Amino acid sequence: MKQGPFIAVEGPIGAGKTTLATMLSNELHIPVVKEIVEENPFLDKFYQNIDEWSFQLEMFFLCNRYKQLEDTGLQYIAKNKPVISDYHIYKNLIFAERTLKGVQRDKYRQIYHLLTDDLPKPNIILYIRADLDTLLKRIKKRGRSFEQNMDTAYLQQLIEDYDEAMSSIAAREPSTTIITIDGTKIDFVENPEHFAQIASQVKELIR
């Protein structure tokens, strides 16, 4: 059976993924799946000592996202119902490849593929790309305490990693439509016209 619209909103930390996914969910009247972030018990420790707590942090995220997407597949995708998510499962590798090393990274890769290779994948990705200054402003504005002292070099590297990841997905999954949103110039929260343009593109795709 042909898969219905499965939309993922992606981008580095502070890009506005959850905000845009929620706005589109309300506009299109389709359910939204939001990733668990602040509930991760290792977040504070991770930002204080990345090397020490990366594996625990990444495994918590992976297991929670796996369960969410397994449920999403059963509730919506298997029934050919549209759904939107504020992440793509591939983000786990984006972060893990940067933070894990050696044996831990090898183990994580094996577990990742074991859990995710047969999960439903989005057929539409909205990729919010923004420069470092824009991301830092948005991170400061939303006020999560554990993000306020984030290493700017780490965030800049994430921007580059996301560009590479989107290119990889485009090459590996040619049937997936990727729409890149210039988050530095486009403010879909403050400018209704900007959001309307994004929503119009998505409506065309899922029509």
From TrEMBL:
<dbReference type="Pfam" id="PF01712">
    <property type="entry name" value="dNK"/>
</dbReference>
<dbReference type="GO" id="GO:0004138">
    <property type="term" value="F:deoxyguanosine kinase activity"/>
</dbReference>
<protein>
    <submittedName>
        <fullName>Deoxyguanosine kinase</fullName>
        <ecNumber>2.7.1.113</ecNumber>
    </submittedName>
</protein>
<dbReference type="InterPro" id="IPR031314">
    <property type="entry name" value="DNK_dom"/>
</dbReference>
<dbReference type="InterPro" id="IPR050566">
    <property type="entry name" value="Deoxyribonucleoside_kinase"/>
</dbReference>
<keyword id="KW-0418">Kinase</keyword>
<keyword id="KW-0808">Transferase</keyword>
<dbReference type="InterPro" id="IPR027417">
    <property type="entry name" value="P-loop_NTPase"/>
</dbReference>
<feature type="domain" description="Deoxynucleoside kinase">
    <location>
        <begin position="7"/>
        <end position="206"/>
    </location>
</feature>
<dbReference type="InterPro" id="IPR002624">
    <property type="entry name" value="DCK/DGK"/>
</dbReference>
